[in-house]
Amino acid sequence: MKTDIEIAQEARMLPIKDVAASYGIGEDELELYGKYKAKLTDELWERVKDRPDGRLVLVTAINPTPAGEGKTTTTVGLGQALGKLEKKAIIALREPSLGPCFGIKGGAAGGGFAQVVPMEDLNLHFTGDFHAITSANNLLAALLDNHIHQGNALGIDTRQILWKRCLDMNDRALRNIVVGLGSKAEGFVREDHFVITVASEIMAILCLANDMADLKARLGRIIVAYNYAGDPVTASQLNAVGAMAALLKDALKPNLIQTLEHTGAIVHGGPFANIAHGCNSVRATKTALKLADVVVTEAGFGADLGAEKFLDIKCRKAGLKPDAIVLVATVRALKYNGGVPKDQLKDENLAALEKGIVNLEKHIENMMKYGVPVIVTLNSFITDTEAEHQFVKNFCEERGCEFALSQVWEKGGEGGIELAEKVLYTLENKESNFAPIYPDEMGLEDKIAAVAREIYGAGGVTYAPAALKAIRKFEDMGFGSLPVCMAKTQYSLSDDQTKLGRPEGFDINVRDAYVSAGAGFVVIVTGAIMTMPGLPKKPAADNIDINEDGVITGLF
User: Fold this and answer.
1) Which DSSP string do the residues of 483-542 spell out, in sequence order?
2) What is the SS3 string spanning 6-68?
3) 401: three-class secondary structure by DSSP
């Protein structure tokens, strides 16, 4: 059986200008990065911005398990299948972080015969967007420390510095550090921290900004510290905005690549959904909606994280209204939720499937609360049985969901025809009445409770004293109308990753909170979630290599 990278390397890609032409994009509206990658120019947006929007389909999933779900694979395969049905479709994805690529999770190009290519480029440096974000983030950190060293005219309280440096790599040794050691010329000695680039506020800002003017306004609102009077100090006050924006000028433009079957893929931005808002850029999605009849996008991790943030943050901020939601599951993952060990998931086990399917049930209920019609798709494995497929199909249809079996990993777009037909039927026959789960005017504690109870199924919320104090301070500062971005483990509906299935009666434990004023949300940190992951005992980097001909191996 061929690996994902072998399939991708054997693909015959079209020149990206030809893919672009199929969507009416002229070569002068591209900024080429070689033959197979390009950025979409501002001129393209100005030309198409007044067109009517296509239909928007969100792909999400149950909570991830070691058995795998295939959300991105399904997104890619669905886009390819819609093309086979002669629909003008395009997909909109996030860029992958280097941390998971060299760590444990893997990349974000899809899999099998439902991939975006060039796969190696996408999973490694791509067009340099993440490097630009990292540089802009760390420029602000450098300017902040330099301001303190050069006399601290703003009266910054060095015990209340909020801004963290970032790096797009899993590096636990950088979570908590000390900077400024040495002589007086080396700066002010203080404790500092790193987050992974995909969890940085700059990443969120880039993904939520509409244009350069909006980007600069958001950058200026970043709160980097408090002064001795307790007032916030912003990036604008440090005169950092212009230089940061200059570093981000190219990163702000969406990237265009293609699937194995030459469907267009706009891939831009990459915030994690467990510690950030988990959606690709607003610019990418809005551009896609002007270029195609159907846009298929995805949000990170399970529907309790990525989809919730897509619906409550991205759609709210950008004025987007999804027309349908595809919820991905696998028989293997549902049996894992039912208590079956990973090495026994190949065996038919209807009892475990019945026990574990409650996780899917909760996600169906959650998505329906937003007023959007839901299609459930099973990402098929060869070890699945007909009885298992029929059980899940009956379960979903009894709950008012369309159901389709997906075989896109094995068959590409052809294996997604059944799903594509169900999506088109839903778009044509079922109305979406999308509304966020809570209103803007609700207080922050009530918003947290709404997500915890309605989406996670929690019995209540507990707060560390410092977190509660911070939340109330944010409301006093005028940030109470912002949405909340919940940082939580992806492996469970609760904040305890060992609680599989559909836990009930638990408390969500809030241990920290901070405001991302530029992004426009308040981050709520629950459980033991980390904003700088670490590498596993045997990282994926161990298996990655490149030969004398430039052929990369071991990348999935």
Assistant:
1) PEEEE--SSSSSSSTT--S---SPEEEEEEEEEETTTTEEEEEETT--SS----SS-GGG
2) HHHHCCCCCCHHHHHHCCCCCHHHEEECCCCCEEECHHHHHHHCCCCCCEEEEEEECCCCCCC
3) coil
Positions marked active-site: 71, 73, 94, 105, 273, 301, 381, 409
| Whole-angstrom distance, CA of residue 494 vs CA of residue 183 | 47
Average model confidence (pLDDT) across the chain: 95
How many other CB atoms are there within 10 angstroms of residue 43's CB atom?
12
User: Is the preceding peptide bond at 100 cis, omega within 30 degrees of 0?
Assistant: no
DSSP 175-220: SSEEE--SSGGG---EEE-EEEGGGSHHHHHHHH--SHHHHHHHHH
DSSP string of 261-320, one letter each residue: T--EEEE-----TTTS--B--HHHHHHHHHH-SEEEEEBSSSIIIIIHHIIIIIHHHHT-
With 0-12 / 13-18 / 19 or more C-beta atoms within 10 angstroms meaning exposed / middle / buried, residue 464 is: middle
Report the pLDDT value the prediction gives residue 318, as an integer from 0 to 100. Answer: 96
* Residue 243 and residue 219 in contact, taking contact as beta carbons nearer than 8 Å: no
Q: Can you list the residues of the chain whose pLDDT is less than 50? A: none
Q: What is the pLDDT of residues 281-305, one digit of tens each?
A: 999 999 999 999 999 999 989 999 9
Whether 297 and 92 have beta carbons less than 8 Å apart is answered as yes
The conformation of residue 454, written as its DSSP 8-state character, comes to: I
d(CA 96, CA 413): 22
Nearest Cα to Cα of residue 212 among 118, 316, 107, 283: 283
Render pLDDT for 478-520 as a digit per residue (tens, 0 to 9): 999 999 999 999 999 999 999 999 999 999 999 999 999 999 9
Residue 255: strand, helix, or coil: strand
- What is the three-state SS of 305-334? HHHHHHHHHHHHHHCCCCCEEEEEECHHHH
User: Is residue 361 a contact partner of residue 399, using CB atoms and an 8 Å limit?
Assistant: yes
